[in-house]
Amino acid sequence: MHPRLAAMTENAEGDLNSNLLHAPYHTGDPQLDTAIGQWLRWDKNPKTREQIENLLRNGMNKELRDRLCCRMTFGTAGLRSAMGAGFCYINDLTVIQSTQGMYKYLERCFSDFKQRGFVVGYDTRGQVTSSCSSQRLAKLTAAVLLAKDVPVYLFSRYVPTPFVPYAVQELNAVAGVMITASHNRKEDNGYKVYWENGAQITSPHDKEILKCIEECVEPWNGSWNDNLVDTSPLKRDPLQDICRRYMDDLKKICFYRELNSKTTLKFVHTSFHGVGHDYVQLAFQVFGFKPPIPVPEQKDPDPDFSTVKCPNPEEGESVLELSLRLAEKENARIVLATDPDADRLAVAELQENGVWKVFTGNELAALFGWWMFDCWKKSKSRNADVKNIYMLATTVSSKILKAIALKEGFHFEETLPGFKWIGSRIKDLLENGKEVLFSFEESIGFLCGTSVLDKDGVSAAVVVAEMASYLETMNITLKQQLINVYEKYGYHISKTSYFLCYDPTTIKSIFERLRNFDSPKEYPKFCGTFAILHVRDITTGYDSSQPNKKSVLPVSKSSQMITFTFQNGCVATLRTSGTEPKIKYYAEMCASPDQRQSMLTSISEPLKSLAVTSSGWKSRILSSTSGLYKVCYSHTFGVIHTSRLYFPIRILRWLESLKMKFYFLTCSEVWTGISRLVLLVLVGFTYQMEVSCQVKSPGCCLAHDGLSWVGQALPCSSRTPRTGKSSGSSAVLLVTRNSTWHNGCSVMVK
């Protein structure tokens, strides 16, 4: 065990002998005074009590109010927040309170609660300054229930998140909790709740549990007694049994075990300092593979995630550096990266030109969808009916599965964002005799089969390995097969990304402005010159495409989400994250197979004018002195949209034949050359953007043509700084990128 984890899992109880404990609180805010008194009476963790006492001693009333006068709410993955002191943070006391509320609600819902029991799992997160670790929080969760004579299946070591929903179903428990913050920053932790069906809780359970938590805020006798996990006969360790059952069930989605055992492909796996290493190794063994090569620096748990800037494999090459270099050294063509709780998967493949291709979640879904259906067709029984087959995706994910379903004759359904909706829908379909082959969400969350009703990075990793090994026998790479899928079912060009925003008021104002754009209750009708055909607002339940103007998908008032469908077929969605302080955006252009040439034409035509500067957006150079350029522009509205398009080689050659050299701005980098097209549209809110960059090649200035910003070659010295300032309500960047080199560029949105 990592030394920090060992230190954090020690008993945190103690007596601070604090003079503040019985002191009167006179902050001038009665609500805050009450909250301070409650915290200092109820919290038995010395570190978190000390944090509140220090704030009180130093008169930090605003921070005390922020920490103590609000509570966490359930998002798309349960309760999630930073670790630390306060009722809105993850800590010993709030986990005890949450579990007490869970107990009260479950006792009301299940008369056999104390016979069926409850499952508890945890990852490897922790924070020394709060004496808080996932293992300790799991023990406290178990202690609350054991003190109430509830049988608890507490895993004796860290496990992948999918093991908890799997165990809930296998053990017929009434519910389960996984202590994890998945891929969030190291400061965070979470409390993820699963219902008896093995899926994450949805409404109304989440709201009812929160009500019960509010009614059970004072710790009960025995709730702090984590010694119960060592002494109670009601505590059981399901680790060996569940691991064995899970690995046995993996065989249901293994179709070429003999081929796997003979493959010459090598795989590198990184577990991102989390739980995945041992379990991915076992999964590879089940499929007949040799063990994947682990990244030694990232193989073992480390709550600091010390070798990555963030523990999210979705961030791409910037966090996969160690994996890619190891793969090159070991002559391995495929890199598999599970996130810290092993419920998500990123994949990279080395191309013939020596460049790594990191697949997006939507691209991997195209491969998974093709693979799972192809395997089903080859292994199905005579009386199997394709009309009984389903695939699912969240509404912000690519519609590639829909295209495959339309051509192959099976069913496709979409759900609200969050795998909790997918899991619940899968359960409904299974109960009605349907078969679900594959489900996904674009944020690299995949589920092959239905043994687990949540995304599963362990099973996804080994399925990708089998897919790659099978394709290798035909000398086809994953990227080549992706093109084959698009050729057969239609190209789906998509991009997802996000902006960080820590102010809920700002987020709300952005979305409210979109709902009241030109006039009250009027959404935008255009994005630049592009007409908006339909608007769907999941927050309010509005959908202009429906005869009754009501959304078919359920209303979700607790989150923000608006989707714009354009006249040209593009669909763009803007929503808030349910687990992080992010505004996420998603955009996709879809084409049927027979539209391939027209789609390429529609893409290429705007490119021809890239080198032309026009006044389409009233662009003007404000000053031009010794290599310094300032550009001001404004526009009325923009939909957040970033899209990377990978062109067939003949298109790339055509672009190169134009002999255009550009220097382009993205949110973090400046690129030169042509190999990828990136369209970035910043969203409709007032901001000031400052861009500065050092150009490594003979110079450029900033200009744009109504669709794009482009850097054009001008006679100025190399390494000359360029600065642009922009005020307005949106901006559009059309950029091309060469993967071989880049230099620094920073963008600040104020």
The low-confidence runs, each spanning 5 or more residues with pLDDT under 50, are: 5-22, 603-750
Radius of gyration: 27 Å
Summarize the biggest pleated sheet: 7 strands, antiparallel
Q: Percentage of helical residues?
A: 25-40%
Q: Report the span from N to C terminus.
A: 43 Å
* Class by SSE composition: alpha+beta
Helix count equals: 22
Mean pLDDT across residues: 80
The total count of strands amounts to 36
**Range of strand content:** 15-25%
Please tell me about this protein's structure.
This protein is α+β, with helices and mostly antiparallel strands and 750 residues long. The protein has 22 helices and 36 strands. α16 links the parallel β14 and β15. α5 crosses α7. The longest helix is centred in the middle third of the chain and has 19 residues. The C terminus is likely disordered.
Architecture blueprint of SSEs:
Blueprint: H1 3-8, H2 30-42, H3 46-57, H4 61-68, E1 79-82, H5 92-109, H6 113-116, E2 118-122, E3 126-127, E4 132-133, H7 134-146, E5 152-154, H8 163-170, E6 175-179, E7 188-195, H9 205-214, H10 228-231, E8 235-236, H11 239-250, H12 257-262, E9 267-270, H13 276-286, E10 293-294, H14 321-330, E11 334-338, E12 345-350, E13 356-358, H15 361-379, E14 389-394, H16 400-408, E15 411-415, H17 419-431, E16 435-441, E17 445-448, H18 457-472, H19 478-489, E18 492-500, H20 504-515, E19 526-527, E20 530-537, E21 542-543, E22 561-566, E23 571-576, E24 582-590, H21 596-608, E25 620-625, E26 628-632, E27 641-646, H22 649-657, E28 663-665, E29 669-672, E30 676-682, E31 687-694, E32 700-704, E33 709-713, E34 721-728, E35 731-737, E36 743-749
Parallel strand pairs: 2-5, 2-6, 5-8, 9-10, 9-11, 14-15, 14-16
Antiparallel strand pairs: 1-7, 3-4, 6-7, 11-12, 12-13, 16-17, 18-24, 19-20, 20-21, 20-22, 22-23, 23-24, 25-26, 27-30, 28-29, 29-36, 30-35, 31-34, 31-36, 32-33
Helix pairs in contact: 2-4, 5-7, 5-9, 8-11, 11-13, 13-18, 15-19
